[in-house]
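Pipeline run #58 for the internal structure catalog. This entry was flagged by the ingest filter as a single-chain record with no existing model, so it goes straight to prediction. Upstream metadata was stripped on purpose; only the residue string is passed forward. Reviewer on rotation: M.T. Logging verbosity set to normal.
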Amino acid sequence: MSRRNPEPAQSITSAPEPLGADQARRARRYLIQMGIRVVCFVLAVLTWSRVPLWVSLVLIVGAVVLPYIAVLFANAGRERRDDAPPGYVPHLLDAAPTARPVAPAPPGAGDARDDRGAAGPAPGDDGTPAGEGRPDDDTPGGPR
């Protein structure tokens, strides 16, 4: 019995590198970079007065900067892929039902906004103390 749309088989070249191999590769790269750093430092010390000053300074800068770069590469972790895992369909997230829109409140109901949507004066802005003589006073203890 044959299938009309067979799923593509997992390619061995697209399988991720095993975690142990990835860690060993990063540790080996770190040790090589630290070895280069030691060589830079030793050469800078041994050649300090025998070569032009800029050569020794370049070696010292290399010895100072290489540890930072080596740590960045060692902590970089596993390679990330752009392809999605099998079965991941991002467009299904867009097909999710949306929330029903809420009808806007009629003008004059709720907050004090005018037809432009701008807020009206806050309680107490018209010269009367807030809460006095207003039926919507919800301060604890009622009107003072």
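catalog note: The helical segments are 19-46, 53-74, 91-94.
catalog note: The chain has a mean pLDDT of 74.
status: ready for reviewer M.T.
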